[in-house]
Design goal:
By secondary structure, the protein is an alpha/beta fold. 38% of the residues lie in helices and 22% in strands. The termini are far apart.
């Protein structure tokens, strides 16, 4: 009897299995560094790899919608309307923070840089320089991004484009004189298109910003805490840093 009581006591002291939680998400289309539908299991995109790392660390957490691709503006609408629960890799802005929440663990950092043609000797070190340059030809920036809103606030004339690839082609053809964007995306597409001898990245980093996991405004606090703990462990273990380096 004592043996069975001891065994029962041991079983009762075991931690309860974590609750199964399924969260809705989507991929961002047109951003292959973050989500690459053609990258296969080895290189599915940085943000998809972070999502998989969370699922591996906490097997009770599951994400649906991982094959659905939508443009960034629709990602924002889905989050604001509560139609997705979580989205991996989104910059913060005051406007966005009024509409949804963010897990306070940075996933990776992006740097705002300018790309010019290699033979363009003009130094673009400030947003004032960009504003002056844009009077002749608008500065190219990715459509619907927080970066576009930042340029508009600095009175920089912009032309919004659908992808970094499109912007780089326009710049190489002389249809624009500068692109303002995220270093990790621009460098990837420059290398892929073999434009390193025709284009250059400016020496100035205009701003450095972390990307975060965004959550719908009314997601249960218990789910947020669970995601936070998973990301904190991935950060402590160096997993987030290693994944970011893989895609630079």
């Amino acid at each position: 009897m004592l043996r069975w009581l001891c065994l029962l006591s041991g079983l009762l002291s075991l931690p309860a299995p974590a609750q199964e939680v399924t969260l809705r998400t989507v991929q961002q289309s047109g951003s292959v560094v973050k989500y690459d539908p053609d990258g296969g299991p080895i290189r599915p995109g940085l943000c998809m790899e972070i999502l998989h790392a969370v699922e591996k660390l906490d097997p009770g957490l599951h994400f649906t919608g991982t094959k659905d691709q939508v443009p960034l503006r629709r990602v924002e609408r889905l989050l604001a309307d509560g139609l997705v629960d979580a989205f991996f890799c989104l910059l913060k802005s005051p406007e966005r923070e009024r509409q949804w929440r963010y897990v306070p663990v940075p996933l990776y950092a992006i740097r705002h840089v300018v790309v010019q043609r290699a033979d363009d000797l003009r130094n673009l070190d400030t947003l004032t320089d960009l504003a002056a340059l844009s009077r002749r030809k608008p500065v190219l920036v990715m459509r619907g991004t927080a970066l576009a809103r930042r340029l508009l606030a600095a009175e920089v004339s912009i032309a919004e484009v659908g992808s970094e690839r499109e912007a780089l082609q326009m710049l190489a053809m002389g249809r624009a004189d500068a692109i303002y964007g995220q270093d990790i995306n621009l460098l990837h597409h420059m290398a892929e298109a073999r434009l390193g001898d025709r284009l250059k990245v400016s020496r100035t980093v205009f701003q450095e910003e972390p990307q975060y996991l965004a959550l719908r405004a009314d997601l249960p606090a218990a789910h947020e805490e669970r995601l936070t703990q998973a990301l904190r462990k991935l950060e402590r273990d160096g997993v987030l840093r290693a994944l970011a380096e893989k895609y630079r």
